[in-house]
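A quick aside before the break. I want you to see a complete sequence-to-structure record at least once, exactly as it would be stored in a machine-readable document. Don't worry about memorizing anything.
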Amino acid sequence: MEYLSHFLVQFFIVPYLGAAIETIALLFIFIISSKLFLRQEKSKLFFIAPATVFLSCLFTCFNFNIFFQGLLSFLLCIYCLHIFISAKDSLLRNIFVFVTVPLLYWLAGPVSVLFAVCFFLNELFTGENKKRIGWLFLPVFACLVSWLAVRLSFTGSFRAGFLPDMYYQTKLSPPFLIYIPWLLLLIWISVATFLPKFNFSGKKSYRAIGIGIQFLLLILFFWQGIVNFGDRASYEVKKLDYYARNCQWDRIITASEGKNMHNYLHINYLNLALAEKGCLLEKMFRFNQKGTSSLEVSRQRNNILSALMSDINFSIGDIASSQRYAFEGYETSSGGGSGRLLKRLVQTNLIYGEYAIAEKYIRILERTLLYRKWATSQRQFLYNDSLCRKDPLLGEKIKCLPPRDGREFTTGGPETLKVLTDINPANKTAQDYFFAYLLLSKDMKFFSDFFSQYEQKGMLPSQLSEPVQQALLMCYESQSGIWKEKGISEKTIGQYKAYKFLFMKCRNNPDKKEIMQKEFASTYWFYFQFINIEK
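That is the input. The structure line, written in tokens, reads:
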């Protein structure tokens, strides 16, 4: 099941195909559980049983820390239950039930325990009196198999050997959500044996009431599941991450327009998109900015942020940090791997000239279906320094490498960005991130000092972006004679005068922020004066 789930997950990169694969698996769960619970004609209308199992499995799909392997294993478990419960009681059937337990454990993990307990409960309520208690040996046998697997180190822990914890991200405490499908299966497998005693298809009025109550309960269950497990708060970030993964920068910018963003990750994706489009400084203040964390959140080592951190550092040319985050993210990825991060590891090792390592990662990707073509295309760069330098992407990143043997910039933050711009003055992304950092920090002396250094070295563009001009005007407000010399345009000067006039006019008004925002929300002056940032 682990191999099968990994094989299927690679197709999730195709829009809607991942959703289609999960939907098909969920529909099979509903169909098989319907056959399992509603075996008698009189109980056919009691659809709430398979529907609740279906919905509980749907809710597990919302949590990306729950492996797809768990859903497939659960499906295999109920399919085996359906086969053996439907089969006629015989010695051969009973032997195969016991054989299935270790086989199911080998194929799918601890669902073998769930299978054994559910089969025992079914036989306890429906089997012959002499055999009922005898089937207790089946769950005992299943627990023995799981115990031996843990003792022999086939499974890492007893929780993973007996419970659905195996199907959850290692080192994280699984939520109660992961146990709900198992509990519902245990409940309904017991209740199903008593359903034929009730006539659900009797009078039309009773039938209508019964169906109506079930629909109301399902709506309530679905609504509560969406509220508690839907994780709608992270939907926007997941969408932006998908766009970033496919370099759809325009879609990130479009998705951010007109929104009052407060999520730092959202702002990180937006600023990365603006930088990749070459307009970070020109357009950044048209959107919410909330301090230097808007460029890159604090450097936390976890798999959720690793891909984003790797993308940002790759974009600015900090190849060492990009490689480190890609490797950490790959090692801690949900399910044990990531084609996306493997691609980044191939690129960074080609940039460093570590061709043997790059070739190792290329071989892994060539064993997949959807990454094979890209991986094969990278073989042309192996052991070919000149071709790597000629490549538009790899060649530009090679220019960002430090001249010494050391790979990583140990300082981080603006110091790293400054070193990157010193190494390669043509690295516009690093320069834009550097000046964006200076502006967002609101440290005008810091900004003025570095601007003077770049001015002396001739590293400034011929036309300064409007936010940089606006910041310069604040630094040299009392020195109007050098405004034009510093590159401040007449338009910026006129806009500043209008800003000061309006501010002086409404400075005693308690709503002055809203008044200024209507006219000057996209200026650096408004950000500097009215946006509070966390230190």
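Two observations worth writing down. The chain has a mean pLDDT of 89. The two ends are 48 Å apart (CA to CA). We'll return to this after the break.
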